[in-house]
Amino acid sequence: MMPCETVALYVHIPFCRSRCHYCAFNTYAGLESLIPAYGEALMAEARSAPEVRARTLYLGGGTPSLLPAELLARLLDFLRGRFGLPEGAEVTLEANPGTVDETYLWAARAAGVNRLSLGVQSVHEDELRLLGRRHTWSEAVAAVRAARAAGMDVVNLDLIYGLPGQTLARWQETLEAALALEPDHLSLYALTLEEGTPLEQRVACGELPPPDDDLAAEMYEWAEEHLERAGFVHYEISNWAQIGPEGPRVCQHNLVYWHNEPYLGLGAGAASWWGGRRWNNVRHPEEYIRRLTAGGLVAENVEEIPLRLEMGETMMMGLRLLEGVDDARFRARFGRGLAGVFGAELAHLAEQGLMEWDGQTARLTPRGRLLGNRVFVEFL
After folding, report:
1. Which stretches in the chain have pLDDT values below 50?
2. pTM above 0.70, yes or no
3. Bridge pairing between strands 185-190 and 247-248
């Protein structure tokens, strides 16, 4: 049977050399010995996956760049054939500076990776230590240069602002230094203190000051203005793209999430939404490997998605995009227009100055982008 639906394909690599102090993702340190068996388990899961075609492929983590180059190449070749990934499709590899060099990135590029996302986070060594990052700024610079030498089409840099004790001036220095590396894409995230993480515990016990929300908003607004002057297109709340020969170099994979379209996740803890259902895989890599080796299932927490919830999540995700949610596109998908489903919510948010609604497009105002969570909850 030929696949008839396209999805964004995500592959989770949960291994890290150490856990960052702010991280609440499904990651594990000290289990790198499992990587060969984990690669085999990923291919076993892919063989039993739904009959779909992949439009993009994203290897996230964790630290996907801990995969040996030979395993990375074999895995990508297998997934490309299994899911019919088109020639030239976006293939992203997340990496930590200090885990990649030019030789590794040449091999990754030869295997089909064309977009590299580097977790840089800060230019300041003390902030990197606060976050529990293993790399230095000089290693981040070296990783960007190696990516360019290897011919990566797109290089993204992740940066974090709103750290305990961080000043506006130090955030400006980080963004300026990142821009000097001439990235194609930037992802800027406000620090979130996740419960149970070392950083959250240090703040909770008074060892560190809590992040200043007002200062974080000032950092965000400064970044918006500065990146616009630098020629970047602000296309999603936390994401900016440089303009290339074919337009802004937006992340095609993440656009699938923001449009609330189907995606398939492989790997320990990976989430999927396809065929009106949502599920996630068993979280621990050892259990994931064990189940697949025994021919068992790894999917858990399967839930049917009611139409009303799907519409609400489509609004919530779509409003993260600065283009907003288009009424005609929404109507073509659900058979009803935005006003017919969310008329009261749209009017209420427009009165509060959080949203613009002209009968054709709903989008956040600049104030709404700062208070996005207050907006999103209206639709759920």
Report:
1. 1-3
2. yes
3. unpaired
